[in-house]
Amino acid sequence: MAAVQLVEVGPRDGLQNEDAVLSIDDKIELIERSVASGAKRIEAVSFVNPKRVPQMAGAEEVMAGVPRSDSVSYIGLVLNRRGLERALEARVDEVNVVVVATEEFSRRNQGCSVDEAVAAAHDIVRDARAAGVAGTVTIAAAFGCPFSGEVDPATVGELVARIAECEPAEIALADTIGVGVPAQVRRLSEVASRNAPNIPQRWHFHNTRNTGYANALTALEVGAHALDASIGGFGGCPFAPAATGNIASEDLIYAFDRSGVDTGVNMNVLVEAATWLGGALAKSIPAQLGRAGGFPVG
Amino acid sequence: MAAVQLVEVGPRDGLQNEDAVLSIDDKIELIERSVASGAKRIEAVSFVNPKRVPQMAGAEEVMAGVPRSDSVSYIGLVLNRRGLERALEARVDEVNVVVVATEEFSRRNQGCSVDEAVAAAHDIVRDARAAGVAGTVTIAAAFGCPFSGEVDPATVGELVARIAECEPAEIALADTIGVGVPAQVRRLSEVASRNAPNIPQRWHFHNTRNTGYANALTALEVGAHALDASIGGFGGCPFAPAATGNIASEDLIYAFDRSGVDTGVNMNVLVEAATWLGGALAKSIPAQLGRAGGFPVG
């Protein structure tokens, strides 16, 4: 039986773009529900400036309150040295560092050039490793940029090669704005495998244009080590305010379960968690499983 | 460049499960908008009993009002001899006959056994051909049945072989209730290709559980001749009342356009048509393209 890791990113990317800001207790409950679903890796918090991203405030309090066990790994998003310090202090199990694939998005979103972001990622991954914490580097906007449009897979391939120099535990390829198609997944997987053959690939998809699940299933086919998804499919897209967000964990697990792919994650627990989260965010749930029900019934 | 036929089924399957019933003029306008999008095959009407399916009433009036041209083929759904007579009288270009893959769904939905439905399909396809009209046979519930659950691909394979005896122009494999996954598409394509190697395959997907687009792209990969989709993704599912319907034409064309697959259909015209149809049905649009916008922008 094939197997893949689900990285539950609901507590981080799922909440980051929602208008409502959850209480610390609700954030902890979302993480507890993620653990209860069977997810073994959870992107739990972001150590960004809470003035810039108020939805992500209270990362330290959240991490102080989550249940700890050897079988669950909590990931903190960090963008700079200050973020890494906070993450280590809060005892995350992994860090995820972001490098944007295009110059314009990098400057607008991270406030630095791509070169500066790569250098920062090297430092963060090395310092995290020295502290016993695994580091992922995510290449954002790898499938397309809201400012500069198409992104050449060769550009992503070059970035992969440069990132690989610091030997991260994983490289994640992210369709940040949800424009990708399976043909791109195949091309990016090829260039990444060529330029960093020994580094596992993680993938991050949004369903903004209804291609997210096709992309995820294709990523699995070409050897994905891990796939991001978010309970309920919350998360939205800052560049298309009416659009939906991350691919939903429960809908992805439905497809995996029926395809004979083992994740160890229970779809029904996710559906319940999404119902609870929809209530907490006062929003309708983008995922379909809760409405449609599983199959076969019962 | 790869190519595939889009069969626009919005006027038939898209409207069939909606609560609102469109006027004859609106039905004709939807077909005109489908033609304007560049669709070359349009499932325009259903010759079922209007007492059983009021949404499909007025098929004759609709067909009398649509623009005719050599480059567009109008398909009428028929279930029996009476339906075929009406379809020929109304001058459809093609007929689509349905056989359900499972005994229980066949008896409940069509009021006949699978054997009786196969025999009827043979007669209809032969009589239509004698009248110069091409016939497709659709195998409904080929991916799963709302009553009997899992459907063995071998059962579908046997049905394909029996249907092939009447040499239809096309066999369509339909995920009527939206439970399928790409692994099933591959298996069904294999058995259908083995049992009817010379008959083109058409596929019909619903996005009820967010697997529809992945299924469609997989069908294309394994040699689909034609794919059904519906403007705006309307259509719903009678077995999951809150769920969405057919895969949306505009979202499918987005994926095809970005994958280098030629259909000759214009996504922007479809988005406009979906906006109009959402107004006519007084319903929000399941498709995502209208909300998210295309890519690259402009």
From TrEMBL, chains A, B:
<feature type="domain" description="Pyruvate carboxyltransferase">
    <location>
        <begin position="4"/>
        <end position="271"/>
    </location>
</feature>
<dbReference type="GO" id="GO:0004419">
    <property type="term" value="F:hydroxymethylglutaryl-CoA lyase activity"/>
</dbReference>
<protein>
    <submittedName>
        <fullName>Hydroxymethylglutaryl-CoA lyase</fullName>
    </submittedName>
</protein>
<keyword id="KW-0456">Lyase</keyword>
<dbReference type="GO" id="GO:0046872">
    <property type="term" value="F:metal ion binding"/>
</dbReference>
<dbReference type="InterPro" id="IPR043594">
    <property type="entry name" value="HMGL"/>
</dbReference>
<dbReference type="GO" id="GO:0046951">
    <property type="term" value="P:ketone body biosynthetic process"/>
</dbReference>
<dbReference type="InterPro" id="IPR013785">
    <property type="entry name" value="Aldolase_TIM"/>
</dbReference>
<dbReference type="Pfam" id="PF00682">
    <property type="entry name" value="HMGL-like"/>
</dbReference>
<comment type="similarity">
    <text>Belongs to the HMG-CoA lyase family.</text>
</comment>
<dbReference type="GO" id="GO:0006552">
    <property type="term" value="P:L-leucine catabolic process"/>
</dbReference>
<dbReference type="InterPro" id="IPR000891">
    <property type="entry name" value="PYR_CT"/>
</dbReference>
<keyword id="KW-0479">Metal-binding</keyword>
